[in-house]
Amino acid sequence: MPLRPEEFAAQLLKEAHDTHPWLHHPLFHLIWDGRLSRDQVRDIVRQQGCFFLDTLRHAAWKIISVGGSTPTWDDLQRQRALIPLVVEEGGADTIGGTQTGHAILFVRLCEALGLTRDEVFSTDYLPTTIIEKNELFLLQRSGTIEALCGGNIATESINAIHVERMAHALERHYGVPKSALTFYHVHMEVEADHRDRAVRILEPLLVTDADQKRARSATRRAITARRICADGLMEAFVRGAGA
Fold first, then answer.
1. 3-state DSSP call for residue 4?
2. CA 209 to each of CA 14, 122, 151, 216: distance values in angstroms, whole numbers, following the listed order
3. Distance of CA 178 to the CA centre of its chain
């Protein structure tokens, strides 16, 4: 028998908080504690560009995934509710605001760690990094439930905690000026809205056992993909470096 949608959504959010590698993987605890070298952190962050440089398309797929061959009235409302997420990723400066796109902010972070722009965009990504991105994008293309559970529920719901710790660590332990950490700071501000927006859209969709099974699977697939990536980064840049 399915849970009440609001109860089920709360259960998914708790599972993300309890299991997500961005909160629990040893790799990130090493970074937060200042136990890696600056070069190691630079290489780890650089790998994350595989996903972070492409988050505009990742967000856009949320809208594309809503509805079938012809939208219903409810589909139109869900699509409209997701527009702010795309604008935030692409940059509010495109519509008269001040904040630029998240991918641009990520490039600035990498430059502060000593990488050139050309180096950022010519990164040789690890297989595990590519696996992570491919799975996350597949979830976005698979339907509204998969897109929101694979993104907003699985990761954005916990990301404000993660990015606050990353920003603090990079400034305190690795010499990155606060002015270059805007990529992290903006995510401290917007992720709660992204989580709540997803819950509002999902609750009317999560009424059957089958729907809840899809949602749980998508959440766990996304968390697993993030863990696979973290494992790969740990192996390549920590264990492989003899740390």
1. coil
2. 19, 44, 21, 10
3. 21
Place of tokens 């390549």: 236
According to CATH, the superfamily of the domain at 5-239 is Heme oxygenase-like (1.20.910.10)
Alpha carbon distance 162, 21 (integer Å): 10
Domains of the chain, residue spans: 5-239
- In degrees, rounded to 5, the angle at the alpha carbon of residue 142 between the alpha carbons of residues 139 and 147 is 50
What's the sign of the alpha-carbon dihedral 224, 194, 167, 52?
Answer: positive
Token digits for 60?
């856009």
191-234 residue pLDDT tens: 777 788 888 889 999 999 999 999 999 999 999 999 999 999 99
Q: Extract the tokens encoding 53.
A: 């440089």
Opening angle at CA 54, ends 98 and 96, nearest 5:
20
| Helices and strands in the chain, H and E counts | 13, 0
